[in-house]
């Protein structure tokens, strides 16, 4: 979680230099869901993400220099510098892609789950999406198809209460999102998305069930994004969030919560500083590698584009 947080804080700090020329959506405040779900997955399990993808990518084992290189549009990026923040992929890590169009990776994840079932490979497919995606018809079509074929599929809804600047209760009727999934006939579970231990427990049980052929499952985790919808800044000045709401949620920071628990259990305090120093050095090296890398070349494009 700290690695994701420090990486995104560095992105936010450097974004104004105008060297990263792609939109970027930060998941600061939501790290526990990324890490807790990925903790329960195997390397060859599939993960599909959305526009807020950095945390999912890193948690699943994605390459940090390749992530930063992609933001800088450099040839060492995970998409060769031609995709940007919202188009990350690393098949070797089982991270099968992020796409900015809301809910568009969910049917892709279902397709991967169907392929895994047909091959009897034992793999599980996970789709991460926000509460806003639940308003797209393809989510419900995907749920229906996954349920019809009993696919090894886990739907993970990161409910951070907002779709861009519009609060959940202004977009959806007053009922729990997971309740609608249950009405489809799907097994559901919920947990505090800022408590990484709770996420690990919930995800571990769901993924084990899916792997045993008892899927699909729908998980809803409550959380909150700290920064603006798109960009490196804070946007409380826009007035779309109730006064004090951000500060209240920051009191439930998933990283601070786990840090406090570890300290209370006797973890050496030097551990935390050593971890931060190590990650800071790794992040700095990734940024330097991106700055030093060459831009993508036309000759590096797939052959089909040359036609």
Characteristic key phrases:
307 residues, alpha/beta, 6-stranded parallel β-sheet, two-stranded antiparallel ribbon, 12 helices, disordered C terminus, PDH_E1_Alpha_Subunit, thiamine pyrophosphate, DH_E1, pyruvate dehydrogenase (acetyl-transferring) activity, Thiamine pyrophosphate-dependent dehydrogenase E1 component subunit alpha
The chain-level mean pLDDT equals 96
Determine the number of helices (DSSP H or I, runs of at least 4 residues).
12
Unreliable stretches covering 5 or more consecutive residues: 303-307
Largest sheet geometry: 6 strands, parallel
Q: Which H/E pattern describes the elements?
A: HHEHHEHEHEEEHEHEHHHH
Number-wise, the strands total: 8
What is the terminal-to-terminal distance? Answer: 44 Å
Quaternary arrangement of the chains shown?
A: single chain
Strand line-up across the major sheet: 2-1-3-4-8-7
The percentage helix is 40-55%
Q: In terms of structural class, how would the helical and strand content be classed? A: alpha/beta
Overall shape: it is globular
Radius of gyration: 19 Å
User: What share of residues are in beta strands?
Assistant: 5-15%
